[in-house]
Structures are given as structure tokens and as C-alpha cells.
Amino acid sequence: MNNIVIYLICLLIIPASAAAESNLSDACKDYRSVLDVSDPVSSGTQDIPFKTGMLWQIKSPQGKINYLFGTMHSQDYAVSTVPKEVSAVLQQSDVFIMETVPGQAANQTFLDMMVFKEGQQLDNFLADVVYEELVRQIQDYGVPREQVIVIKPWAAFSLIGRPKPIRAPTLEDNLLQIARQNGLEIKSLETMEEILSALDTLPIEDQIIILTDTVCNHEQIIRDSKDLVSLYVHRDLAGITEYNNQTHYDEAVFDRFMQGILYDRNSRMLQRIENEFTAENIFVAVGASHLAGEEGLLQQLSEKGFAVTAIY
């Protein structure tokens, strides 16, 4: 997802008391994760297709050669630096396609879709102590106390479910800069509305469960993000697949979430990538999770007769 910056003024939050911490622990006890993901890759990876690589040459049955690159939306320098192998291929391309091109229109769509329109309030869906903890956590993501109450649950867990933003470009930002500097045609693979609809159409009950889980396990989620960075840096698609397949608080909710945010989008992306790959010299960049696994883009392109070769 694009690097959406919300320009809001942060307010001072009163520190939680010990009693509040105790109540929060009680509210979160069923959500507390006991997983150890310090080594998320398991023996199950031998069955995962296309295990290693982030940059792939895709040769169509008609002989057209294009490239598909897996990204990670991170401001970590280890991730955001464009490898020379990737930069070289991108600079030689004619068209750069990313999930959605950032800009004012995309930002406005996010801001419009992230808030309740029918007078609903987020605090009515959460336990008081969970809501107050969310208010405390979300300050680091540019949302002041008085705005939290109107944010939809999916927007809240999307914001806090990653390390707090810093003033640094993401990998996608740097890829886009290279494309612009080299005069490439730039396209979106999806609209921002299409991407966010995968979250916005989740049942509100599912959104609340995911948000509560994210609030209760926020510190661990941020710690675990370092493991995901390591997997990405090592170009470990099999490991990323295993990371995504960890046990979750409610597997049915997680399955519905993954169906909308990953598998349904994979199907839409696949159709559009196929259409684009009737030409050549095209460079497509999508989140690495879209490449990996049996339902990933690499496997599906291979099944459709494309020759898929790891470049980097």
C-alpha cells in the first residue's frame, strides 16, 4: 500500500495507570500471542513453489520478456535501497507498473474511505481499555485523540500494524523516482479504491477482532516486523509464505482477511499483468506476498505457460 501521510496535529496523552494496565491485560488475555517467530521458516517450505528471489523474468508463450519484482512497503534502509540488479532492469524498461501510483487523488481516497459516514463511532465497538490503548498507540502514526473516534477499524489496524513512520522514502518511492528519472511510462495496476475495498468490505465483526488483536499484540508485531525485513532482504519467498501462515487468534477471520487482501487481488492482478505482458519491456512491482505460494502470481503465471526465471 502507498505511503499515505496524514497531516494531523497530535495531542498530549495522559499516561495509563497501573489499574488501567491491569484491565487492559484482562481484556487482551484471549488475544495474547504465544508464538515464537524468531525463526518463522519451517520444514513445510519444501512444498512452496518459487522459494527464493524477488526479481523475476517473465517470458510469455509468444516470447515477450518482462519483469516482475516483489517489494516490501518499508522505510527500513535495508529494504528501501534499490538493488543495482533491480535498478539496471528498471532503467532498461519502457513501462513501470506499481500497485497504485501515489498522489493527491490516492491520498484523498484513503482519507475519504477511512472514516465512518453514518455517525458510527469506533469507541462503541471496543472495550474502553482497548480503545484507550489504541488512542495511545496511534499517536505515533499522526492521528490525534479527537480523530480516532471516527476512524474505521480496518484503517486503525492498517496504521498501527507496522513500525511508526519516519521521514524516509520507501522502496516503492525509490523505484518510482528511478522510473521518472528515466522517462518510463508509469501506470497503476489497481486503483486505491480497489485496494482499500478489500479491507472496507470485511465484516465489521472481523475488523474489530483484527484491530483488538493488533492493539493487544502491538509490541510483538513491531518486533516481528524485523523478522519480515530479514526474510525480505534474503529474498526468501518461502519464508514469507510461512510467516503469513502462522497460527492466528481466529483462523476463520484471518482466512477471510487473506482472501480479500491477497488472493482476490492476486486474481485481479494476474488478469491485468497478462494483458500488459502482451507487450514487452514492462517492469511490474507488487508486494512480495503477492508473488509467493501456490496461489501467488509466479505460480499462476507459470501455470498459464509463462517461463518464470529468478534474476535476483
Polypeptide structure, described:
This protein has 14 helices and six strands. The protein is an alpha/beta fold and 312 residues long. Residues 1-19 and 34-43 have low confidence and may be disordered. It is globular, with a radius of gyration of 20 Å. The chain has helices spanning 18-28, 77-80, 84-91, 104-113, 128-138, 145-148, 153-160, 171-181, 192-200, 204-216, 218-233, 237-244, 251-276, 297-303, and strands at residues 55-59, 65-71, 95-98, 185-188, 282-287, 307-310. Helices cover 47% and strands 10% of the residues. It has one domain.
Number of separate helices: 14
Fraction in helix? 40-55%
Whole-number average pLDDT?
89
Number of DSSP strand runs = 6
Gap between N and C termini: 23 Å
Share of residues in strands: 5-15%
Number of domains: 1
**Structural class by sheet pairing and helices:** alpha/beta
Contiguous runs where pLDDT drops below 50 for at least 5 residues? 1-19, 34-43
Main beta sheet strand tally, sense and closure? 6 strands, mixed
